[in-house]
């Protein structure tokens, strides 16, 4: 199986990336590069149910929702949806077994997947061409190679996210006047979350400098409890928007903020798409691979020291994407390190404070 570059005119392109929020945000920039290279092509994106809520009405793209909770019924529905069609190319941007089974029912002349080094969970069985291999790529850069495989040019990524004036207005109505600092404290796994009392100390520091501090997140019990704990430990008056926004309104909240603090979680990457600086907190995964793409200089991480402690090797000496394990790793990130980074970011970005 060889790598391929299709630069000829394409009339139908299917994108397969089901999840997660951060990853589909990375993929948007690649998809929009493809649109510039193939303006005549119809683009169909097979995507997860939650992720489709964020990307609904993405310009020039038909979203086909795959609801994993429906199991075999979802595969059957997808097969029926595409009956009688045959895409010029499928860009299979996900190696998980579920996504591979989805790729199986998508009819396409060419099915382009990841290079051999990144293939797993039988991915190679569901493709007939590969993207070119890359040395230590960020997830976003991997998606860019799919765009390059069909003749698109990819430089610094850009995004046109699908929000309306109504979403912008809804976000503005929720936010206080002044400079907004958003804390999006919850990752999908609790072990990736920082300590609530430490978030609170950073919130207090920001409030002393004149920021209005806002906590965001979804409606889950974990997120609501974490936000409540941060509020309990903080001396400042924090605005708690956890569970009070849909994804598009949240995106606009992030856009209207001066700065975002988050662990390895989707809203960190949402903020990148709208140009808001992000301080990322990382312990378990390599931020060079999964960190906030445009703001990797603002990451506070203990990943590399734990990788050496657990594996005895550096990231360059291990398979790319190697994770470290431990439920207490995030506690190694100090308040002082995050406050120092906070002060650096507001200086770098020219944000005027009360200090």
Automatic annotation (TrEMBL):
EC number from the UniProt entry: 2.4.-.-
Record InterPro entries: Glyco_trans_9 (IPR002201), LPS_LOS_Heptosyltrfase (IPR051199)
GO molecular function, one term: ADP-heptose-lipopolysaccharide heptosyltransferase activity
Enzyme class: transferase
Any GO CC annotation of this UniProt entry: cytosol
Keywords in alphabetical order: Glycosyltransferase, Transferase
Biological processes per GO annotation: lipopolysaccharide core region biosynthetic process
Family, as annotated: Belongs to the glycosyltransferase 9 family.
Protein name, per record: Glycosyltransferase family 9 protein
Taxonomic placement: Bacteria, Pseudomonadati, Pseudomonadota, Gammaproteobacteria, Alteromonadales
């Amino acid at each position: 199986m060889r790598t391929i570059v299709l630069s000829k005119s394409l009339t139908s392109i299917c994108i397969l990336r089901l999840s997660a929020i951060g990853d589909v945000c990375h993929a948007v920039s690649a998809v929009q590069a493809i649109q510039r290279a193939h303006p005549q092509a119809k683009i169909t994106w097979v995507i997860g149910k939650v992720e489709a809520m964020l990307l609904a009405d993405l310009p020039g793209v038909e979203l086909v929702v795959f609801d994993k909770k429906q199991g075999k019924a979802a595969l059957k529905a997808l097969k029926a949806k595409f009956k009688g069609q045959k895409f010029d190319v499928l860009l299979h941007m996900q190696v998980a077994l579920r996504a591979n089974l989805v790729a199986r029912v998508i009819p396409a002349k060419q099915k382009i997947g990841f290079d051999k080094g990144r293939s797993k969970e039988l991915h190679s069985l569901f493709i007939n061409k590969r993207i070119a291999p890359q040395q230590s790529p960020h997830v976003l850069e991997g998606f860019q190679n799919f765009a390059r495989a069909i003749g698109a040019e990819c430089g610094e990524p850009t995004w046109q996210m699908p929000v309306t004036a109504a979403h912008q207005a809804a976000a503005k109505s929720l936010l206080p006047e002044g400079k907004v600092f958003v804390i999006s404290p919850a990752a999908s796994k609790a072990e990736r979350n920082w300590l609530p009392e430490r978030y609170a100390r950073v919130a207090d520091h920001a409030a002393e400098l004149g920021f209005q501090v806002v906590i965001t997140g979804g409606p889950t019990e974990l997120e609501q409890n974490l936000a409540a704990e941060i509020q309990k430990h903080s001396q400042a008056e924090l605005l708690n928007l956890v569970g009070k926004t849909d994804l598009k309104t949240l995106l606009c909240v992030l856009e209207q903020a001066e700065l975002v603090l988050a662990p390895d979680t989707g809203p960190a990457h949402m903020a990148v798409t709208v140009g808001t600086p992000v301080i990322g907190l990382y312990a378990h995964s390599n931020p060079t691979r999964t960190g906030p793409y445009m703001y990797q200089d603002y990451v506070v991480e203990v990943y590399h020291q734990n990788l050496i402690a657990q594996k005895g090797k550096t990231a360059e000496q291990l398979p790319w994407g190697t994770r470290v394990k431990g439920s207490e790793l995030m506690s190694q990130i100090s308040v002082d390190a995050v406050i120092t980074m906070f002060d650096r970011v507001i200086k770098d970005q020219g944000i005027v404070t009360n200090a």
